[in-house]
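Before the break, one more example. Copy the sequence into your notebook; we will annotate it together after we see the structure.
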Amino acid sequence: MAFWRRNYKDSVFTDLFGSDRDGKKNFLELYNALSGSNFRLEEVTLRRKIIDQTLYKTFNNDVSWEINGKLIVLVEHQSTVNENMPFRCLEYVTRIYEGIVPVKVRYQEKVFKIPNPDFYVVYVGKKQIPLEEELRLSDAFYEKDGSKLELVVKVKNCSDYMNLPVYNNCDILKEYCRFLEIVEENYNKHFPKRSLRHAIELAKEEGILTDYLDRKAREVTNMLCAKYDYKTDIAVKQEEAREEKAIENALVLIKDFNASPELAAEKMGAPLDKVQEALKAQTSPA
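Here is what the structure looks like once it is written out:
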């Protein structure tokens, strides 16, 4: 995908709660709101955990910090919550642990201590979901037989943030969510950068993330462009997958039920020319 060739691999979420100079402070405020904790910056040890994105190629919307010996993984979702998130987090945390545990000690008799993990999805999409829910790795198993491997992801719905406790005790999340609203309201796919720059100026006029946007307007514009490129790329791939399935179903109608290509294409919602091409490819000698 094109955005992997850019310098802007972070999303605004990852930068704001991770990479930015205030990322540590912002993360702690968000984590306190999500977990009900009351950690103070001067009282905790915080270390950012980053894995090599060449090994873990996903749109970088995750933030990982180790806080007082506990590993916190935050993942943002802006459309629908991915029910495979427990497996993705399992992949992710395994790679983090690989970076924590030296190779030479993995075969020693004495146990090497690792930080306890805790996983959160911060959902800011428009689909109606519960305010809080849990996704479990065991839900993906063929059978629930009491297997010992488990991973639980806590999903926090922050889309209607005014109805959540975090609205009152996490100003940075409140401002971030409002910023997303301003961006969505003003984004124009025909003039992406111009519309995003305009959204940033509107946010600053409203007092939203002013210091952050003053410092990083250009970087934020590029990160948002990468995000929208990614969303477009995913939408195209989904449409291509739907079209391929429709063509496949049309061929079944033709082969098994003697339907004409025209009727099969109409019934399955597939492009007639592509159905005819696929039919010709099937019947042509190798």
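Residues 50 and 64 are 7 Å apart (CA to CA). Residues 1-8, 54-59 have pLDDT under 50 and may be disordered. Try to locate both features in your own notes.
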